[in-house]
Each structure stands twice: as C-alpha cells, then as structure tokens.
C-alpha cells in the first residue's frame, strides 16, 4: 500500500496488514497530544504542520533545556507540549496528566523524535526533576512520532509520577523538567 511513498517490500497477502500497521512509509499522523487534529502527511511535512496548525507550541534550541509545565493543578486531563531542537533534529517533549484510577491522577513525561524509529535509536534523553534535597531522573531512548505518546504510556516507557511527587518538585504550581538530549 505504501510503495508510492518508498516501501519496497513485497509480502504475502496474509502478512500485509501486520506490516502496514508498522510500516515506516505510512503517513504520519499529527503527533500533538490532546488535540483532535486529523492531519496526516509525510515526515518532512510534520514540523511545518506543527508550526502552522499548533502555534502555541514553543520550540527551544539546544541539548539542555528546561521544559516548564505551568498550572499543574489544573483539574482533569491536561497535556503540556514543547519542542526541542538539537543535533539537526526536532524532539517533542510531552507531559501528560491523566486519571489512572478513580481519583488518582498520574503524570507521564516522555520525548518523541520527529523522525523514524531507526533515527530514534541514535539518541538518548534524560528528564530530571530537582527539588529541595530531592532528584528524580529518567533516561531512555526517544520514541518515534510513529509510535506516539500513548504507546510510551501503555508500555510504561516514560517517567511516571503521582500528584504528591509533582507537588514535591513544583514551585507555585509550575513544574520545571530539565531535558537533556544526547547522541548514542
């Protein structure tokens, strides 16, 4: 199905649906969480789409930045999104607050590469929360935007913390997460 966009595999019809679900050449969906955006397009068009359709997303340059999530006490499910640009790539930083069990909210923080799974293997990210005599650190490889935030959460391959931990590191309801991207 994706031969026109670069896939050169020829598969038996029984193997085709499984491959098409994960094919690197399938269209990319809008990676912006918390929106009902149904945009699809090529990998090369993702950043242009984000800059034009989601203008509220801030982009910071550099390998080390601070991702500031404001008003973490807002009720209900909330997503904070920011872009980080370094090593000639763009990374989407996401902090997601959602209710996991009745009345129990959790925060999920992860990094997605605006790129393929293969490209994502070339990078590592570190998320750090700093507080008064406390430090919480998570290190992992970024996910490709083909996989998305929900896949990172489903696999518990992200920084996960509860509301009490968020308040331990927050300053006046704002949570600063140090984000460092490095090449492997």
UniProtKB/TrEMBL annotation:
Pathway: Protein modification; protein ubiquitination. Residues 1-55 form the SIAH-type domain. InterPro entries: 7-in-absentia-prot_TRAF-dom, SINA-like_animal, TRAF-like, Znf_SIAH. Pfam families: Sina_TRAF (PF03145), Sina_ZnF (PF21361). GO terms for biological process: cell differentiation; proteasome-mediated ubiquitin-dependent protein catabolic process; protein ubiquitination. Gene3D superfamilies: Apoptosis, Tumor Necrosis Factor Receptor Associated Protein 2, Chain A, Classic Zinc Finger. CDD domains: Sina. GO terms for molecular function: ligase activity; ubiquitin conjugating enzyme binding; ubiquitin protein ligase activity; zinc ion binding. The keyword Metal-binding applies. Keywords: Ligase, Metal-binding, Transferase, Ubl conjugation pathway, Zinc, Zinc-finger. Belongs to the SINA (Seven in absentia) family. E3 ubiquitin-protein ligase that mediates ubiquitination and subsequent proteasomal degradation of target proteins. E3 ubiquitin ligases accept ubiquitin from an E2 ubiquitin-conjugating enzyme in the form of a thioester and then directly transfers the ubiquitin to targeted substrates. The RING-type zinc finger domain is essential for ubiquitin ligase activity. The SBD domain (substrate-binding domain) mediates the interaction with substrate proteins. It is related to the TRAF family. This is E3 ubiquitin-protein ligase. The lineage of its organism: Eukaryota, Metazoa, Chordata, Craniata, Vertebrata.
């Amino acid at each position: 199905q994706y031969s026109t966009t670069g896939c050169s595999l020829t598969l038996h019809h029984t193997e085709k649906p499984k491959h098409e679900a994960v094919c690197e050449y399938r269209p990319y969906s809008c990676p912006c969480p918390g929106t009902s955006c149904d945009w699809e397009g090529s990998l090369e068009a993702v950043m242009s789409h984000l800059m034009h359709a989601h203008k509220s997303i801030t982009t910071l340059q550099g390998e080390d930045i601070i991702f500031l999530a404001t008003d973490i006490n807002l009720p209900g499910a909330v997503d904070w999104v920011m872009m980080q640009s370094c090593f000639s790539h763009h990374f989407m930083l996401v902090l997601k607050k959602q209710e996991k069990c009745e009345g129990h909210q959790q925060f999920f923080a992860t990094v997605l590469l605006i790129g393929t799974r293969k490209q994502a293997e070339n990078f590592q990210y570190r998320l750090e929360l700093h507080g008064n005599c406390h430090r919480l650190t998570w290190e992992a490889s970024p996910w490709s935007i083909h996989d998305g935030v929900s896949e990172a959460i489903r696999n518990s391959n992200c920084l996960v913390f509860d509301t009490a931990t968020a308040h331990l590191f927050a300053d006046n309801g704002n949570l600063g997460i140090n984000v460092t991207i490095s090449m492997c």
